[in-house]
Amino acid sequence: MILTIRPVDERDEKRWSDLYAGYRAFYRLPDDPAAVATTWQWVRDGEHSLVGIVAVDEQDHPIAFANLRWFARPSTATIGLYLDDLFTSPAARGHGAATALLERAAAIAGERGASVVRWITADDNAAARSVYDAHATATPWVTYDMKPTA
């Protein structure tokens, strides 16, 4: 399979949305077309510092995506690139799409002078972790979520 990595654009909406719904299902999030549509708008328009990239096949059909987001790193006075989401269509797994997306994320970070590309994944996501371990170093940090007050 010959892959190309490129920014998302308008023509990707249907396929990207299907992939994003698959990503949400993988993480056992409820089916929520409104959340998918809102996230698509953010990624497409670059809202909230989001950058969307896709891996496309020979017919220019997206088979995988990565949603990236810039963030400030006050402790180092640098910027970082956060990989919010990465997902490959089950039928396209094993053909290098995730690796190609990670490599493009690293290049985007380098182009902007970022000091790190960072992401989290589920502890039990062994397939993804095997790819991630080949490209990055797992950190000792523990992630916490706190609910905002009303």
UniProtKB/TrEMBL annotation:
<protein>
    <submittedName>
        <fullName>GNAT family N-acetyltransferase</fullName>
    </submittedName>
</protein>
<dbReference type="InterPro" id="IPR000182">
    <property type="entry name" value="GNAT_dom"/>
</dbReference>
<dbReference type="InterPro" id="IPR016181">
    <property type="entry name" value="Acyl_CoA_acyltransferase"/>
</dbReference>
<dbReference type="GO" id="GO:0016747">
    <property type="term" value="F:acyltransferase activity, transferring groups other than amino-acyl groups"/>
</dbReference>
<keyword id="KW-0012">Acyltransferase</keyword>
<dbReference type="Pfam" id="PF00583">
    <property type="entry name" value="Acetyltransf_1"/>
</dbReference>
<dbReference type="InterPro" id="IPR050832">
    <property type="entry name" value="Bact_Acetyltransf"/>
</dbReference>
<feature type="domain" description="N-acetyltransferase">
    <location>
        <begin position="3"/>
        <end position="150"/>
    </location>
</feature>
<keyword id="KW-0808">Transferase</keyword>
